[in-house]
Design a protein that fits this description.
With 201 residues, this protein is of the alpha/beta class. It is built from eight helices and five strands; from the N terminus they run ααβαβαβααβαβα. The N and C termini lie far apart (73 Å).
């Protein structure tokens, strides 16, 4: 069964991937490998939730913890920076409108620090702040969650961003491995050329 309706039904039931039986011989192992790698990477990843509403922080923390994430929270940008000095989260989910230091200022502060600039940053806000959201996306935010949201939407966004981040890390590792192999190959060629020299020259 591989109609769009069947596939949608599978994902609604909680499937992590879908493989048609027609393509099973070629695709099954690849999908299994992908799901296991993603699950291993996502297990115990740390998420920092920043919001001045205790209710939002509680709902987000409970949903993410149920999905297997470690969660730390902060009520504004200043408190978030304090948390960052103690822990390095894998993902930051932040409200925009907060006292003391808002989400825009927090995002800007993160992008100025090389050790924090690469952490994926998700914006949470109401639909009425679209101009601010655009500004934040231009400052480096990578996704937007519109309030009110359900915890499943939050978890899926977190998993997607961390999976994409994981894939980027894998590609970067492959690139570095390739460059290393090429460099070692060049050195080996030079060594062979030196050792093959004529005694006279």
């Amino acid at each position: 069964h591989d109609t769009e309706k069947d596939i949608e039904k599978c994902f609604e039931a909680g499937a992590a991937a879908f493989v048609s039986k027609l393509d099973g011989r070629q695709e099954l192992l690849r999908h299994i490998d992908d799901v296991l790698n993603r699950s291993f990477f996502l297990r115990d990843r740390m998420v920092l939730v920043v919001d001045d509403s205790r209710l939002i922080r509680t709902i987000a923390r409970e949903g993410l913890v149920r999905a297997g994430f470690n969660v730390i929270t902060a009520e504004n940008g200043f408190k978030a920076l304090e948390q960052l000095r103690l822990h390095r989260p894998d993902l930051i989910i932040s409200d925009i409108s907060m006292p003391e230091m808002d989400g825009y200022e927090l995002c800007s502060a993160l992008k100025m620090k090389p050790e924090w600039a690469s952490i994926p940053f998700v914006v949470m806000s109401t639909a009425g702040e679209r101009s601010v959201i655009r500004r934040m996306m231009s400052r480096g935010a990578c996704a937007f969650l519109e309030k009110p949201f359900n915890t499943e939407q939050l978890v899926i966004t977190a998993e997607k961003l961390l999976s994409d981040h994981f894939q980027l890390l894998l590609k970067e590792k492959e690139r570095l491995d390739t460059e290393r192999s090429l460099m070692l190959g060049s050195i080996a060629s030079l060594v062979q050329a030196l050792e093959a020299r004529d005694i006279y020259t």
